[in-house]
């Protein structure tokens, strides 16, 4: 554990330059006293670390000193190459950069770790979009990425919704890009408000000469998590009661999603006299629920609400008449 912490200190100093004992303690979740003890041990082992006192002081490596990545564990080396997602990197114009970086890391690893890191690419591949779902075309992704990197303002025309939605003009400060389910989203500040824009709906854009100052307290991952939670809470929902054949419960996950199905199954009681289970499901709205319930066919029956039951019955009647 301590050896791993010493390597972490060394790499933090190498990547960040000067860093205070308090900052190191926060990163490593240890006491400041432990940090001083670890730094002394690194110095005693020949690592050229020196300290500067004062309000702007901290620990720092001698200029020009670099370490090889020999401190990686086998699991860390494997995870590093599993995290290389070539599709999005290529979309951002970073495909060759990613490949070059991986080659440099491989060259720096000792032989045994190099072999394990190479094997990970032969055995695992990440493919984010779902079945029968291609990644959206994002024609302006590379200039947006350039603006995000360089803190350049963007002028753009954006279609609010798909198809024939209203087109609006915006000047924004691009703070970050997020890839979710094969779809790219731009997180940007418009005036003083943080907003999320679907990149595929950006019709045209220009990088402006003016640069902006990123807010010091902005964390992309935190913002995205809060944004997703707020979106899910704002979605309409209603409760439906279904009877389902127990041997066909696996179809429920396919039709309604794993989380919805598992929550309903976990809360279900015993089977009734016919051997069917009664489930209570939280669904988005009746219009969206209808085709999903129809996917279950004769293996499910809607008990409530009456509106959904009538809609399913009407579709089933039309199908019976057509095939009868």
Explain the overall architecture.
By secondary structure, this protein is an alpha+beta fold. The chain folds into four domains: 2-61, Arc Repressor Mutant, subunit A (Orthogonal Bundle); 74-123, no CATH class; 141-233, SH3 type barrels (Roll), CATH 2.30.30; 238-323, Alpha-Beta Plaits. It has helices at residues 2-16, 21-28, 32-44, 74-82, 86-91, 95-108, 111-123, 141-150, 220-234, 249-256, 258-267, 286-294, 306-323; strands at residues 49-52, 58-61, 152-159, 167-180, 183-190, 193-198, 202-211, 238-244, 277-283, 300-304. It has a five-stranded antiparallel sheet, with helices on one face. It has a three-stranded antiparallel sheet with strand order 9-8-10. Strands 1-2 form a two-stranded antiparallel ribbon. A hairpin with a 2-residue loop joins strand 4 and strand 5.
By secondary-structure content and strand pairing, the structural class works out as alpha+beta
> Poorly predicted ranges (pLDDT <50, ≥5 residues)?
none
Strand order of the largest sheet: 6-5-4-3-7
- CATH architectural name of the largest domain: Roll
Query: What are the secondary-structure elements, in order, as H or E?
Result: HHHEEHHHHHEEEEEHEHHEHEH
Write the layout of secondary structure elements.
Layout: H1 2-16, H2 21-28, H3 32-44, E1 49-52, E2 58-61, H4 74-82, H5 86-91, H6 95-108, H7 111-123, H8 141-150, E3 152-159, E4 167-180, E5 183-190, E6 193-198, E7 202-211, H9 220-234, E8 238-244, H10 249-256, H11 258-267, E9 277-283, H12 286-294, E10 300-304, H13 306-323
Antiparallel strand pairs: 1-2, 3-4, 3-7, 4-5, 5-6, 8-9, 8-10
């Amino acid at each position: 554990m301590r050896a791993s912490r010493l390597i972490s200190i060394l790499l933090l100093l190498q990547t960040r330059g000067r860093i205070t004992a308090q900052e190191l303690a926060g990163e490593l979740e240890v006491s400041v006293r432990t940090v001083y003890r670890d730094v002394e041990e690194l110095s005693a082992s020949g690592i050229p670390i020196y300290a500067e006192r004062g309000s702007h002081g901290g620990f720092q490596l001698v200029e020009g000193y670099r370490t090889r990545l020999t401190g990686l564990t086998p699991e860390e080396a494997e995870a590093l190459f599993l995290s290389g997602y070539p599709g999005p990197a290529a979309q951002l114009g970073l495909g060759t950069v990613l490949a070059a970086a991986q080659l440099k890391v491989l060259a720096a690893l000792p032989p045994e770790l190099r072999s394990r890191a190479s094997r990970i690419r032969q055995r695992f591949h990440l493919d984010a979009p779902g079945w029968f779902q291609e990644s959206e075309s994002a024609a302006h992704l590379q200039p947006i990425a350039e603006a995000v990197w360089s803190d350049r303002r963007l002028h753009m025309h954006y279609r609010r919704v798909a198809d024939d939605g209203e087109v609006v003009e915006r000047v924004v400060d691009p703070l970050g890009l997020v890839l979710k389910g094969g779809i790219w989203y731009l997180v940007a500040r418009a005036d003083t408000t943080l907003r999320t824009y679907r990149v595929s709906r950006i019709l045209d854009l220009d990088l402006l000469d003016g640069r902006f100052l990123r807010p010091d307290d902005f964390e992309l991952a935190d913002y995205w998590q809060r944004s997703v939670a707020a979106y899910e809470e704002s979605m309409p929902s209603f409760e439906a009661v279904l009877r389902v054949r127990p041997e066909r419960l696996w179809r429920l996950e396919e039709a309604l999603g794993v989380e919805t199905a598992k929550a309903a199954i976990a809360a279900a009681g015993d089977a009734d006299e016919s051997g069917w289970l009664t489930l209570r499901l939280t669904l988005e709205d009746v219009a969206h629920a209808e085709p999903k319930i129809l996917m279950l066919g004769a293996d499910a029956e809607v008990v409530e609400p009456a509106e959904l039951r009538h809609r399913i019955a009407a579709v089933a009647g039309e199908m019976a008449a057509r095939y009868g």
